[in-house]
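Interim report, section 4.2 (structural modelling).
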Amino acid sequence: MSALLQRRPATTPSEPSSSGASRPVGKRPAPGGRRRENLAAYGFLAPWFLGLVFITAGPLLASLYFSFTDYSLIGDHAWVGLDNYERMLSDTRLHSALKVTFVYVFVSVPLQLALALALAMVLDRGVRGLPLYRSVYYLPSLLGGSVAIAILWRQVFGANGLINQVLGFFGIQGEGWVSHPDYALGTLIVLNVWTFGAPMVIFLAGLRQIPAMYYEAAAVDGAGPVHRFWNITVPMLTPIIFFNLVLQIINAFQTFTQAFIVSGGTGGPSDSTLFYTLYLYQRGFGAFDMGYASAMAWLLLMIIGGFTAVNFLASKYWVFYGD
Amino acid sequence: MRAHPGSGRPQARRRHPFLSVAAGVGAVLMAATACGDSGSDDGTVELRFSWWGADDRHSTTQQVIDLFEAENPGIKIVPDYTDWGGYWDRLATSTAADDAPDIITQEERYLREYGDRGALLDLGELGEHLDLSGIDPLVAESGDLDGKTFGVATGVNAYAILADPQAFEEAGVEMPDDSSWTWQDYVEISAEIAEATDGEIVGTQSMSYNETGFQIFARQRGENLYAEDGSLGFSQETLTEWFAITQELLDNGGQPSASESVEIESGGPDQSVLATNQGAMAHFWTNQLGGISASSGRDIELLRYPGETEHERTGMYFKPAMFYSISSGTDHPEEAARFVDFLLNSNEAAELILADRGLPANVNVRAHILNSLPEADARSAVFLSEIEDTIVDGNPPPPIGAGQVVEITKRLSDEMAFGNLTPAEAAEQFMAEVEQATGAS
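Predicted structure of the assembly:
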């Protein structure tokens, strides 16, 4: 937009609207050309728009409606008002699912971001073969949510898995990490932290944006690396940190695949990996309780919406936009 | 969008406008892409047949399909299979989307869930195309509900103890006499094996993950998992005792630790302690003997359940291994019925399927293949005929919602094994949760 604004004075007044498309809202739209261009734009938008209406908005609103019914997936349904929402209050498995999910979000996201930032800073110092490292570290982000990695994870952390074989080498008898309620969630947190590549690449780009002169000036004034980190890097990066934080929290709340595969769909052992979305799936598709599952989906939407709102409100106090 | 959710008339049970709109659009899209799925230009009828299982079942079933197609040129059967774990989620989703397979393999605990909601055809109405007269009377009515036949049994099964004689030998422990052994014997023998081998071989795999074992235990005491009316048919004391046996085996080392058990359980029959030669006993269905024997590379034997002579009556029973059922949404009920008829009543099909779906339900077909069964299956056939005389009765149909009990049983077993619940607390919670799931309170 700013490019357009800058360019406008350069056009001569003798040809006011020949380049109609570049004008914001035309007072006198050139007949024909403009409409044709609009049509083309709508044409290109149509696939996305249809997708939005029928694949996203339609089911979204349908689930809102179903959340007030006893819809069972098969057969008819009846309106039950707020029953599903009331049932949530006394559903102890729902409460434990919320607990598991909150622990997961609040432990894995900060760890993941810290690791991502640390590695981004190492790479930013100009390592030889940077593109290679960047790709290698980014790879887990592409794979981490996949079924294959989740299966691999189960093997690695299993009773006879890689981890225990290494521990055995040092004479330590390890647990079956994914099959013990005290550790199972931990292995999934490790899995999420391991997928630090995406935020790392974003951090790396952010670090590149910080003008070198700040660091030079600080060095001249005698600031050490710790000072430079806290007083230059962190403040200059806050918009990037904020962006990563919002994105990763939303992602973490919706974690499903890893928990589903690692626990074989049960959320076990003894509900220790029963993520919110996994419980939702169990209710909807296992127990034919789709009305309740729909209500759960809307509660999750509200929770994520709430956290994102708080994040944005709080950002006023710590995010620094430079100008 | 005219169909606004707030404006719906909520009181009536009806399909919501949203669904109609969505269905309408779906239909338009389907038509536009011309992907009609149940027939083609040359008049061939296409039917989808769904089942669960492991690789060998998939390949034999494909052979059966090929055979049927060769005999019925106008019908094409499309296979639709997954493992047990994913089967029910997938079936629920496709049924909800009005895209259920034409011929559906069903199981006792889910059959009525679908039948009751109108998702299955009454097989009794297909008369001439589907002959049900040869079915073993013991399971002939096992798929009925309110006078309608929603499923027909594929074969007969019994839940029993599978034992590995070689493991017993390595431990230097004698095989029990299964005509008279008690639950106390079961616990002691298991502990003895683990002790003798220093834990290298466990006595038994955890039995608390499957409510079927408890059903036999309860029947031995004249109780049952479910009563005739679908309510709970047992006392809390009985269930507490049942869980206490597992607790005792955990304490004395007769069975794998809690976290090992979780891992073994999630691996299915192929990862059972018998299949991996790490244990002497496990609880399974008789039709699983063949697969587990093959995985273990040993001659696994079948034992009667402990405690069959301890109380007033026996607890073991014949169960329909699976059911064949036909979706009420099929466009070609006649052809689907002919395929089910072929699966049930044809000797050629049975020669391929053998005892994989239980010992064939059709008694004539069963007699036909009895001599051609592979060794393990032949042993289970002999076993079934041996116990037949000791079986008192069958079970009332499980209530709607019984499918959820699978998950409840597993979860509470874990809770107890990891020490979060005592056997008594596990029993109490089990009863509360099952009553809620089956609406029997």
